[in-house]
Structure formats: C-alpha cells, structure tokens
C-alpha cells in the first residue's frame, strides 16, 4: 500500500500545471570584482518564490556549482550518522544534493527501499508533507553523468531514475541510494550516476540494510532521515 501511495503522490506532482513563479533568466544578481569593477559572473537569486523546472534547473545548478563548493554532508538517521563525500566531477548532482540539503528537503524523509546485500534507498516518504515540499522546490530531472569512472562499488552513492516514462533514465533528483553489497552492484554502472561515497558510517548503512521489510522492501519500522547537515 505504501508503494501505491508514493506512486499516486508522484503522479499528482507530475500532473500539476507548470506554473513557474520565477524565470532564472530574470533573477540574476551580479558578482562584481572589487578591483576591476567588472562583472565576474551572474548568480541566480534564490528566494521563497523560486521554483525549479525543466527549463531552468540546468542553468541554475551550473551557476550554483560555481558558488557553493561544499562537498561533505552528514545524514542524521534513526540508526546513526552517515557521512557522504560528494564528487566535484558530477557537478549537477552534487549541487542538487547540496541545494536540497540546505533547503531541509531531506528532513523527515525515509529509507523506503531496503534490500540487504544490495542497496538502501532514501529521500521519499508516505507523508503528504514531503510531496508538498517537492511542489514548492519544483519539478525537474537530472541527466545521467557517468563519464568520470565512478562505479557502483560498496559505499557509493547514486541517483535512481524517475518512475515516469523515462527511456533515457533521467535521474529523480529528490532520491538517492547507497550501495551496501560487499561485491558492489556493477550491473548498474552506465545507467545511473554515482555522485558520492560514504566516508563514515558504513556500519550504519549495514544496520539499516539488515532490518525487516515488507514485500515491497519498505522497512517494517520506519527509518527516518532526521536531518542532512552540510559539513564543509
């Protein structure tokens, strides 16, 4: 039932009219060099009215990558803390994860797909509040970016594809999975973007992977992500 509920939530999100309150091309502020008084670059202005879309997300994250250089985040889960190092090479996916973390999107989401000796997958929930968060942030997908040599080895963090009709496996930006299998999950290589790795807390990943689940791989006892903190 939980999976059906989540699918219905996704359908509602993706069937919404595209009412974008802000166009990124008209919300740029200029960064000025103090010595030459010349414009160094234009930075997207982010405010409460800004909504990401298929039209503006790539330009937005390209600019976001230039300003926000943090690449270490900490997931505070019900079972302990997991530290993730984000890869600079996958700039769109790194920037996306940072942006959502700073927007507090992941707070109160869950690990909703757990398969021992395979993966744990998080960033979703059967709570309507999470659907409302997504609507406020925007509707968009990210392209596969797998040309940097990263493989789905144990501890790697990757991004699943969207459940909508999606032959090119464009990534669902609100979700992520961590490879837990000791032998990796290399049959996923080439189809999904590895954008980070667990630098601390693989023991917590193993604990989560070992919990009892229902026939849809959802933990019998919910495992929440209480917060994601950007470390540096």
What does this structure look like?
With 232 residues, the protein is α+β, with helices and mostly antiparallel strands. It has one domain (2-230): Beta Barrel (Cyclophilin). The protein contains five helices and ten strands. The strands form two sheets. An eight-stranded antiparallel barrel has the order 3-4-9-7-8-6-5-10. The chain has a two-stranded antiparallel ribbon with strand order 1-2. Helix 2 packs across helix 3. The longest helix has 14 residues, at 2-15.
- What is the CATH architecture annotation? Beta Barrel
Oligomer: single chain
Indicate the mean pLDDT. 82
Low-confidence stretches: 3-32, 39-43
Strand order of the largest sheet: 3-4-9-7-8-6-5-10
CATH secondary-structure class: Mainly Beta
How would you characterize the largest beta sheet?
Answer: 8 strands, antiparallel, barrel
In short:
With 232 residues, this protein is of the alpha+beta class. The chain is 24% helix and 26% strand. The strands form two sheets. Strands 3-4-9-7-8-6-5-10 form an eight-stranded antiparallel barrel.
